[in-house]
Amino acid sequence: MIWQELTSPAVRDLAWTCFSPPLLHSHQLPGCGDKIENCHLTLTSARAAFLQRLDRDPGPLLAHLTGKNRTRLGIYFESLWHFFLRSDPDTELLAHNLPIRDGGTTLGEFDILYLCKERQQHIHLELAVKFYLGVAGSDIWLGPGQRDRLDHKVAHITQRQIRLGELQLAREPLRTLGIERLHKQVEIKGYLFKPETRSPTLPPGYNRAIPLSNWYNIDEFQALASTDAAWLGWQLIKRERWLSPLLLPEANQATGDDALLAQLSDIFRTGAGPQMLACCDEQGQERRRCFVAPQPWPTQGANDPMIGEALES
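RESULT FIELD:
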């Protein structure tokens, strides 16, 4: 995995963004079939060498990211794609966040339009980076803030966003870019976190090459931390570092057990939702991550009657 060989956090994120396995196989998503595929960027030796050079001098990437809010992970994730598609000699970024309007109404935006020079194809690429916690004994996967559901997000991308190019109103903006025919790609990256018991049903298209992580409520996590030495050495991950696996500048910078539990308790007293944690090895490389949630989580109903039913069952 090329990102583990890199030291700059932004360059590690770039490598993970473009070359990590997708969370979902796009052609297996409901209603997609072979008309919608994943992105087919290959980590060639030339691309690996580019990332290694950039790691030694990340200035161009950092300049590209200047002024962008890295805590807005979707925007950060898309910005990394923009940088790569502009930099790579085998791709040409034609447009991004291109709106299609009907009078004063915006019907949608193309996340990315690019030319794959190797395949000589114009690509419409829709992107998402997501972190979902499974609701025990259900098929529901929720974002930490409970406002985002995996099945709803997938339906929005596959039924609306990726089909934007089919609209009559999109034809003229596409022709202006020299595009007559579009190939559709959906690339969803991220992680799924399951509870310890009554695991949720895996979503359609889940890529089993990506191991499921776990989430725990604060009481479960405290019990594990107090009885199992393997649970020592965890620390909170800032939101802007949720993409690629963590690399600590020094291997012994993990938060102490008691201090971490006190930190989590303070955070949850403010009404905050689940927090991501990582555990690193002696070389400072992340080996696993988890979410720790307040008790109870998800809250009853969670703005969706289906979630309330799952909690009661």
